[in-house]
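Before our next group meeting I need something from you. Please put the record directly below this note.
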Amino acid sequence: MKIVEVLAAPGLTGFYFDDQKAIKLGAEQDGFSYTGEPKTPGFTAVRQRGESISVLLVLEDGQVAYGDCAAVQYSGAGGRDPLFLAEEFIPLIMEEIAPHLEGRELDSFRQLAEEVEALRRPNGEVYHTAIRYGVSQAILDAVAKARHVSMTEIIAKEYDLPIQAEPVPVFAQTGDDRYLNADKAILKRADVLPHGLINNVESKLGRRGEKLMDYVRWLKNRVLELGDPAYRPVLHIDVYGTIGLALGEDTERMAEYLGQLGEAAQPLKLRIEGPMDAGSKEGQIRALKELRLALEARQIPVEIVADEWCNTYEDIVEFVDAGAGHMVQIKTPDLGGIQNSIAAVLYAKKRGVKAYLGGSCNETDCGGRACVHVALATRPDQMLAKPGMGVDEGFMIVRNEMNRTLALLHHLLAGRD
């Protein structure tokens, strides 16, 4: 089966692009927007609509495969690629990527995706991570359609992985509406919640961490009130480095505070993402490792999750090898081709570090579904419900795709017995 034509269409994402630098420098919220001037190159406003590009591969038999090019909410920050705008990148895809794909046999997802990953622009530059992400999704879908099997089966076969017809825990994120949306996640029985978006010391964490402490207590009680006796989700909260800011980047003080948070969360398990931001990859690796060791020395069962400064596959390998955290987030759009996310999950698991197949609220339904198949084949410890920040939509997209695929896998495995 060959690719006969490549098409591209502009699209929207499930959230927005936010200028993180401008927000950190004091841009104030005005309703759902922000006031002030953008500070990151490429932005025309502090918050602007998220954009995507759908890549369509037309196959010989008339089937069409899809993949969505999308970038994270905080594009251009923390070493990430710049803002991704459809008008700017559609011509590039059609003029520079399409000729490499048209006429190609769909023999192997892995081989063709890695070939695209290795392509360079005429000036020698690497293609934007969003392009590599979306094109690789389309290639995976195309190979699956050519063979009339699921994307999960393609990944399992090409990476020599066993097929397990069991769900992967799904993590629902609340955004700023951390109370109402936590209720939604609990009612829908999310396996992991709420993310919480604790990105400000004064208004969300508290100078002594008291506001987050109150929130954790509220979350625990809400789970016990709205859930049933068997429902015990993991509490996973992203604090964007604010614990380090509030506690003077002091490892022992942070460990002590996390111990208190863990006690407040009991009987639920607690994970804290990004407890500090050391300002560089090397500093972040060192700080997370020190905090992990301090927690383990005190036998504090709270887990810490690496996120900031851990963007690429190579970054993930460095964090994992250093033991910088109990879990590593694999932020799928930042890794480029989706085959890199597959490799990252498998590497983390091999080295005994928990894998979180994450991503961004600023992705699309197509990307969310593709990542379900990555998760079902590679078996990370959890995957993100995406796109969006409203819980309902992203959780529905991911859970329904997972359940549909599991039904097919159960049917497949039953036929082999």
Residues 3-152 form a domain with the Enolase-like; domain 1 fold (CATH 3.30.390.10). DSSP finds 15 helices and 13 strands in the chain. The longest strand covers residues 3-18.
